[in-house]
């Protein structure tokens, strides 16, 4: 059935509001104005506040934010700090795009308590869906702040619902901001998104949507849902939620714009960047009417393609009485500056919150913003570094967001590194495009396909404009979609990796009725032996009532050891967890029966080394953050007995000096013997106490999470086994680093006995090298350098002699030219390397000559003169058809190796025969 709900609230009923149907869009709305006919939402109504502010006082962003938050605090809401724009607590989205995303999925599902209930927040939100409209429409942003008040109505614990939500919104707008009540409309428009839905009001004022009030009470219907419970909303099917959520969103930037009445929202909220950029670019002031009319008309519809934009330009030009060409020339520099100001603000938040530019996920979106901004600067003719603009945001915003100032050095360095990389990409890009164009021409294609255009951008960072510039010079057409950047952003957002479906060792159905396994490894990580009872045997897996064996998880391998049953020791070869039940893979499952008592014994050498490496990983992470910066986050880890690896997000290679400092700090913490504590905390309490750096190892499920705390050094949510103090780790030695992907560095290290083993092996190799060189160990580097330099000189001499030998070989072979029809032919088996053959063949090659040279080792080269209608590759095939092997090459030169060198002369004879 279609959702139907009476949206007559207490305020509407008691204060004389009228419900009307808009004749233009057909939607119902509520108003106090008896003369109002339309709903107040574009395109039914135009903006009526541009040039005539709808709020009596002009507000800054900070003032408006504080006005909102303090109002709701007075109304009993707890004020909550902003969440990072990179959502570490979930892995199904790339960036936070609305305030409700802060509380999904854990709070809404009831697995975690909200930080306050009800609460109020102003959440920076980033969306790429309208990136191509930013700067053009006057209202679209990539980054905006969604001010909100939320109430989570759990079963039996109501907070408030529709009546109170509408009254709070109306009171804020009219009493706090002094908006005129008769100009406010509440438009009924059901909302759906992110798997939830519910009735909603859009709050409109003088043509601008200033808030959305959503009453989230439905979730996507499962396949086996009771039909009587299913409702249809916007074409999808939903069932009621247990928890009903008040989900509101008030546009901070829109309300500030409303209070200023400026031609665009960018002028109202980004003036601290817009004005300096105008001066730098030497942009002349234009008639404000142009920008005002542009925003008014752009507010009437969504610009989805070039046709829409052309129509907008025509309508604006008509209104202000100028040609479309004059309009384009006047507004384009403004549009570029507005977009740069918005994109660099979004970058400031993203980089401060730990996004590292790369070719994947959120890093890809950051790189998109960087390169788009650089392109806009290029179009404006500005040579200023992008970092200079980002610094403007940091200076302006850091009083409200002090973390920006703290991260300033790293943020600006990331921007500078990316700008250099982009410049290098553009230098290489021209050749890449030319090569692709040549391939297309060969196939008779005269237009570059869209997928190639996207590939050039995604894989090589080449903007479509640059590709078009190069391709069109080479005679290939390029069509650039108007929404190109929206398309690539959508593709990136699809990259939110689908979580691998857990490959359970046994079907969950077989263990779901078993009690949770008691985890002795948490109660006492140093427990080496234990007694337990068999609860179930499934194939070769045994379930016990309790265990000290650690199951594989979180980068820590499973424990191995033995289970003693009826006096016989049976090897445990694997340990896994299914739900909250732990299974042990054993070599002789037939010995185990339900109810049997067993005695377990761990392979302690394996376990203790895993513990050293795991606690060592946390110590190393703390050192990495202190040396490289707070942008560093764990991107993965894996432990073994001999070594461990830690993958981190970082924007450039780690230097030798940095590595030495990281290693020194890590070992200092080991020597300080700091206590390592672990505790179980409710998720929300843990987040409020320690922040989101808890989630270094990724998303941790559950209402209660395990927190590992190395005193004053590192705090993470972690389910592994750990040592009680850092001194037990032993020495930490970084073995090497690798760049495993764009934006991710891998550190391979060893701790404890593994580190000692590595140091001893290194010392042995050094001593052995010293013995070979017959020098003391400390003299090995300079001796090795001297030998290397001597070897290089000797190599140069060998090369020189080789060239001389090639000359002699050429001289000798010149005497062996034969005439085969009209073709000169030289064929011979000679001494030398493949390089010697190539050198000689190139020297002997003439316009009307074929050269075939072979060695007794089987290498061969074929060279063909330019005047001959024969391909060297075809003659190479003749050679291999006689003597086996393979080869190939260009028209004039081919090379290869034959399988049977004894047939070298036969192969040469066959080539000669073919020429005749």
Task: Briefly say what this structure is.
The chain is an alpha+beta fold and 916 residues long. Helix content is 40%, strand content 22%.
Task: Please explain how this structure is put together.
The protein is built from 26 helices and 33 strands. With 916 residues, it is an alpha+beta fold. Strands 1, 2, 3, 4, 5, 6, 7, 8, 9, 10, 11 and 12 form a twelve-stranded mixed β-sheet that branches. A six-stranded antiparallel beta barrel has the order 14-15-19-18-17-20. Strands 28-29-30-31-33-32 form a six-stranded mixed β-sheet, sandwiched between helices. The N and C termini lie far apart (86 Å). About 1% of the residues have low confidence.
Q: Could you name the key traits of this structure?
A:
alpha+beta; globular; 33 strands; 22% strand; six-stranded antiparallel beta barrel
């Amino acid at each position: 059935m279609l959702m139907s709900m009476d949206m007559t609230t207490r305020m509407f009923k008691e204060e004389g509001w009228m419900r009307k149907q808009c004749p233009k869009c057909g939607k119902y709305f509520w108003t106090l104005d008896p003369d109002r006919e339309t709903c107040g939402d574009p395109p039914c109504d135009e903006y009526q506040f541009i040039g005539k502010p709808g709020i009596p006082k002009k507000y800054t962003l900070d003032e408006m934010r504080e006005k909102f938050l303090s109002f709701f605090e007075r109304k009993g809401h707890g004020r909550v700090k902003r969440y990072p724009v990179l959502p570490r607590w979930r892995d199904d989205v790339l960036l936070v795009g609305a305030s409700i995303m802060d509380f999904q999925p854990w709070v809404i599902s009831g697995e975690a308590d909200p930080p306050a209930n009800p609460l109020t927040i102003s959440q920076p939100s980033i969306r790429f869906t309208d990136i191509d409209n930013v700067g053009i429409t006057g209202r679209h942003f990539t980054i905006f702040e969604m001010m909100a008040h939320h109430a989570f109505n759990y079963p039996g614990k109501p907070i408030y619902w529709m009546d109170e939500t509408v009254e709070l919104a109306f009171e804020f707008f009219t009493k706090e901001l002094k908006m005129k009540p008769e100009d406010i409309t509440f438009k009924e428009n059901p909302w759906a998104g992110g798997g939830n839905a519910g009735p909603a009001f859009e709050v409109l004022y003088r043509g601008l949507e200033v808030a959305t009030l959503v009453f989230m009470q439905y979730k996507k219907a499962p396949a086996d849902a009771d039909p009587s419970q299913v409702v249809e909303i916007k074409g999808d099917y939903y069932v009621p939620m247990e928890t009903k959520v008040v989900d509101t969103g008030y546009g901070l930037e829109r309300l500030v714009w409303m209070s200023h009445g400026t031609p665009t929202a960018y002028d109202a909220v980004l003036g601290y960047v817009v004005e300096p950029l105008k001066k730098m670019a030497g942009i002349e002031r234009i008639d404000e009417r142009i920008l005002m009319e542009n925003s008014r008309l752009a507010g009437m519809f969504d610009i989805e393609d070039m046709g829409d934009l052309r129509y907008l330009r025509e309508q604006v030009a008509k209104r202000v009485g100028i040609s479309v060409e004059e309009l384009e020339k006047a507004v384009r520099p403004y549009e570029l500056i507005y977009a740069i100001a918005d994109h660099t603000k979004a970058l400031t938040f993203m980089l401060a919150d730990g996004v590292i530019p790369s070719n994947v996920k959120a890093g890809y979106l950051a790189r998109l913003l960087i390169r788009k901004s650089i392109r806009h600067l290029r179009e404006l003719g500005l040579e200023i570094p992008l970092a200079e603009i980002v610094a403007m945001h940091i200076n302006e915003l850091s009083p409200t967001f002090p973390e920006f100032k703290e991260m300033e050095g790293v943020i600006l360095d990331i921007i500078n590194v990316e700008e250099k990389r982009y410049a290098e990409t553009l230098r290489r890009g021209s050749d890449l495009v030319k090569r692709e164009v040549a391939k297309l021409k060969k196939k008779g294609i005269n237009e570059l396909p869209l997928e190639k255009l996207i590939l050039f951008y995604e894989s090589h960072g080449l903007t479509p404009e640059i590709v078009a510039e190069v391709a069109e010079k080479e005679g290939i057409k390029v069509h650039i979609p108007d929404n190109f950047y929206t398309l690539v952003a959508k593709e990136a957002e699809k990259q939110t990796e689908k979580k691998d479906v857990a490959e359970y060792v046994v079907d969950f159905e077989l263990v779901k009725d078993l009690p949770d396994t008691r985890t002795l490894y948490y109660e006492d990580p140093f427990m080496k032996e234990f007694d337990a009872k068999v609860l179930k045997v499934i194939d070769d897996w045994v379930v016990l009532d309790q265990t000290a064996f650690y199951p594989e998880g979180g980068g820590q391998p499973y424990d191995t050891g033995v289970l003693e049953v009826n006096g016989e020791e049976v090897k445990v070869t694997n340990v896994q967890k299914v739900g909250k039940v732990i299974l042990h893979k054993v070599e002789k499952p037939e010995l185990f029966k339900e109810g049997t008592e067993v005695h377990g014994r761990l392979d302690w050498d394996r376990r203790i080394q895993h513990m050293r490496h795991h606690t060592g990983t946390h110590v190393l992470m703390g050192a990495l953050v202190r040396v490289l910066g707070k942008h560093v986050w764990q991107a993965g880890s894996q432990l073994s007995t001999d070594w461990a690896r830690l993958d981190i997000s970082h924007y450039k290679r780690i230097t030798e000096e940095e590595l030495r400092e990281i290693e020194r700090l890590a070992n200092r913490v080991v020597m300080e013997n700091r206590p390592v504590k672990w505790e179980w905390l409710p998720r929300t309490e843990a987040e409020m106490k320690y922040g989101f750096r808890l989630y270094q190892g990724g998303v941790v499920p559950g209402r209660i999470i395990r927190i590992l705390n190395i005193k004053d050094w590192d705090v993470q949510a972690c389910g592994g086994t750990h040592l009680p103090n850092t001194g037990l780790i032993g020495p930490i030695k970084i073995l090497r680093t690798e760049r495993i992907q764009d934006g991710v560095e891998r550190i391979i290290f060893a701790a404890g006995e593994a580190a000692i083993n590595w140091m001893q092996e290194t010392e042995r190799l050094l001593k052995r090298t010293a013995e070979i060189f017959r020098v003391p160990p400390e003299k090995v580097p300079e001796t090795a350098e001297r030998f290397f330099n001597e070897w290089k000189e000797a190599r140069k001499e060998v090369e020189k002699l080789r060239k001389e030998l090639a000359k002699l070989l050429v001289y000798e072979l010149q005497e062996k030219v034969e005439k085969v029809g009209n073709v000169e032919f030289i064929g011979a088996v000679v001494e030398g390397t493949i390089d010697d053959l190539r050198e000689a063949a190139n020297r002997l090659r003439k316009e009307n000559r074929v050269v075939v040279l072979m060695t007794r080792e089987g290498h061969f080269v074929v060279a063909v003169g330019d005047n001959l209608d024969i391909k060297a590759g075809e003659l190479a095939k003749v050679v291999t058809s006689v003597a086996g092997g393979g080869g190939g090459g260009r028209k004039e030169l081919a090379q290869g190796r034959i399988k049977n060198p004894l047939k070298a002369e036969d192969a040469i004879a066959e080539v000669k025969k073919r020429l005749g």
